[in-house]
Write a structure and sequence with these properties.
Helix content is 39%, strand content 16%. The chain is an alpha+beta fold. A hairpin with a 2-residue loop joins strand 2 and strand 3.
């Protein structure tokens, strides 16, 4: 059985073009400008001579701008930039939420090269499903673990009651645009959360592209942690002109996260 029979052959190029489209970035900046937070976020870059460090800081800034746009799309209000314990705080209806934002700097391909023996150093999802999981599960798990552990640790210092705590992970690596790789990513995020000695978060949001990403409700046990995703794979032909519109509907469906292949749980009446 092919691991990924339903993937569109041009999905990788489509998402990469959207992620790095100057027009899409400009529209995003216009949508969040009224919040008055853009200049403050950009100021955090500072004057950096090291090009590697500058690139890292800029991707962190991009992650925060991406998150702000998503929060508006999700209906959050009273969004504020903070510096102690969280990156943002916001409100949706009566729920107050604190957000820690992070960006995945490491590459899946590099982690596969580092973690796997030579005969398993292949990030392709073509082949038998068991073989794909053998090659990708552990490297993907190591990628997500460091981000989950760091941000969860910071939330240990959040002592204000009545708030929901959410980690937002932004990725723009082409490797996670493949449907099966994203499914494995969701499985490994859930596993990473439940490998923590103490869980300090109630929610997790993974934004791997310009879709609405995967939202996790964290339960006490691993099987109680549920995931809903909206990757926006079914896109209009003029996607690049419409991507990121604030009116783009959020249509997340519950992921069958225990399945070996990407699938959705059927809605129960």
């Amino acid at each position: 059985m092919a691991a990924h029979e339903n993937a569109s052959s041009d999905i990788e190029g489509r998402f990469v073009k959207a992620a790095f489209s100057p027009e899409a970035l400009e529209r995003r900046l216009q949508r969040i400008e009224h919040l008055g937070l853009t200049s403050r976020i950009l100021a955090e870059v500072g004057e950096i001579g090291d090009p590697v460090e500058l690139d890292r800081r800029l991707t962190d800034v991009w992650a925060e701008l991406r998150t702000l746009d998503q929060l508006l799309r999700e209906g959050y209000t009273d969004i504020e930039k903070v510096t102690t314990t969280a990156d943002f705080i916001a409100r949706r209806d009566s729920q107050k939420t604190a957000f820690q934002v992070t960006h995945l700097h490491k590459l899946l391909a590099v982690e596969i090269e580092r973690r796997n023996p030579p005969h398993l150093r292949n990030e392709s999802t073509v082949g038998m499903v068991d073989s794909v999981h053998e090659r990708l599960d552990s490297p993907a798990g190591h990628l997500f673990w460091s981000r989950v552990e760091e941000k969860n640790g910071k939330f240990a210092r959040w002592t204000t009651g009545g708030w929901s705590r959410r980690i937002v992970l932004v990725t723009n690596e082409v490797g996670f645009q493949d449907t099966l790789q994203r499914h494995i990513g969701c499985q490994q995020i859930r596993a990473s959360i439940h490998d923590l000695p103490v869980i300090n978060i109630e929610q997790f949001l993974w934004l791997p592209d310009d879709g609405n990403g995967a939202w996790f409700h964290v339960g006490a046990a691993i099987r109680e942690t549920l995931c809903w995703a909206d990757w926006k794979d079914a896109l209009p032909s003029d996607y690049l002109s419409e991507v990121g519109q604030s009116t783009l509907p959020i249509e997340r469906r519950q992921v069958d996260i225990d399945s070996d292949i990407p699938s959705w749980l059927k809605e129960r009446n």
